[in-house]
Amino acid sequence: MTTRETTPLLAQPEELALSLKGRAVVAGWGAIQWPWLLRSLYGGPEADKQALLRRLGLPADALPNLGSWKADTAFLTHIANAVEELQPFDVVELGCGASSLIAAKALELHGGGRLTSFDQHAAYLDATRDWLRDHGLRARMRHAPIVPQPSRWSEAWYDLDSLPTAIDLLVIDGPPWALGPFGRGRAEVLFNRISAGGMILLDDAARPGERVIAYQWRKRWPEFEFWLDRSGSKGTLIGRRLR
Q: Which residues, 6+ apart, have CB-to-CB distance to 152 below 8 Å?
């Protein structure tokens, strides 16, 4: 969930409608995760960002404001690498913004597949759509409100529709941690759609909450191989479907 503009330090108010128990869990894990949350405010070296933009043929100012809750340069590079390697037909991302721009441009260069991007904020979707259009790019932008969906992972999650039957690359950069430290774990409801050889990229994977998610995914999904790349300010969990 990002735009090309500077993002606020705190989550949007409508993202915080949790039960007392849910708020207590967020507060407790926030106390544990604060060093990682602070590191997430750094978007990566400017030289790395410019190298990525040159590689994709994008202008030097195409990513003006990384940092805050945006994907960092390392995660964006993982997206570009995955698209170049897989040449996917269908890419799905949870949380739109800088990742949408990089994925859409990489798809244009490598195979011409399509990107479907979900976000809970309609305004961010509109801003991202305009951002892509400024660079001659397109994606299927879908509004996915956060709705009550109690599960082992969290109290609420995206209301998704218009999903591709098969997903070749799943990019997970939402929902925000303020909805619960394990909320992104619920993305496993999409794992059965991932094609053989397909890939998962989970942002912020060095955080304690995401490490719990990774531990559970490894136990629950033996048909995938998962490994943590610690490069960048936030870390990336990479998953590959083996069968």
A: 185
- Pair 59, 217: CB distance under 8 Å: no
End-to-end CA distance of the chain: 31
Question: Of 152, 214, 206, which Cα lies nearest the Cα of 180?
Answer: 152
207-219 burial: b if 16+ Cβ within 10 Å, else e: bebbeebbeebee
The tokens of 42 are what?
Answer: 């750094």
Q: What is the pTM of this model?
A: 0.91
Which pLDDT does position 49 carry in this prediction?
A: 94
Classify the phi-psi angles of 168: left when phi > 0, otherwise alpha if psi is within -120 to 50, otherwise beta: alpha
CB proximity list for 90: less than 8 A, separation 6 or greater: 113, 114, 116, 164, 166, 167, 168, 169
Contact 35, 234 (CB under 8 A): no
User: Which residues are CB-contacts of 140 (< 8 A; sequence separation ≥ 6)?
Assistant: 114, 115, 116, 117, 162
Q: How far is Cα 78 from Cα 61, in angstroms, rounded to an integer?
A: 20
Specify whether the CB–CB gap between 56 and 99 falls below 8 A: no
CA 81 to chain centre: 15
The answer to whether 65 and 73 have CB atoms below 8 angstroms apart is no
Each residue of 112-158: pLDDT tens digit?
A: 999 999 999 999 999 999 999 999 999 999 999 999 999 999 999 99
Q: How far is CA 83 from the centre of its chain?
A: 15
How much is the pLDDT for 16? 52
